[in-house]
Amino acid sequence: MLDVLTGFAIIFVVIGVGFVLAHRGVIGKGEARLQFNRTAFWAATPALIFSSVAQSDTSAFVSPVVVVIAAASVTTMVLYWVCSRLFFSRSGAETMAGAAAASYYNSVNIGLPIATYVIGDATYAIPALVLQMAVLSPFIIAGLNVQGTSLRSIWRSVVSGVTAPVVLAAVAGFIVSAAG
């Protein structure tokens, strides 16, 4: 039980530090505040994903746990997409955002630390992370970026999804892990 509390305490401490820094003016307002987001998106999160996946055991990627996670994620996403199209009449990007929110869980920022602190092993958090980052994220990012129905717009969206830093980090980490 202490491990669970430690895992969550670390997360709350990081949030609390961010809150204090923002209120003291260390973290700027508006555009300045986004620098931390950019650092996390382009450097910190991909580095965490790469190192975690590269050190993982690839045999865990073919477990029943991963099949259940994949089936649940895709089913939830599709159900949201269908319900949204039938009942809410939103744009493709808004529908994709809702589908992602309905099916995505935080395997990186919460799943990895909690699995490590509570269980002492991130064996099943890593395949879930790779599933989200390398398989689902490209579709989600592409769906969020589509600006029209032209082939050029769709192609740019697909490229942005496949080349996102978190996607590349997950794929590169898996390759390194599989290569031993």
Describe this structure as you would to a colleague.
By secondary structure, this protein is an all-alpha fold. It is 78% helix and 0% strand. The protein has helices at residues 2-23, 34-54, 64-88, 92-103, 107-119, 125-145, 151-162, 165-179. Helix 3 runs antiparallel to helix 4 (92-103) and helix 6 (125-145) packs antiparallel against helix 7 (151-162). The protein starts with a helix and ends with a helix. The relative contact order is 0.14. The model has no long low-confidence stretch (mean pLDDT 82).
Describe this structure in a few short sentences:
This protein is mainly alpha-helical and 180 residues long.
Structural class of the secondary structure composition?
mainly alpha
Percentage of β-strand residues? under 5%
Distance from first to last alpha carbon: 34 Å
Q: How many extended strands? A: 0
Radius of gyration: 18 Å
Secondary-structure element series: HHHHHHHH
User: Helix count, per DSSP?
Assistant: 8
Overall pLDDT metric: 82
Low-confidence stretches: none
**Helicity, in percent?**
over 70%
Shape: globular
Salient structural properties:
mainly alpha, 8 helices, 0% strand
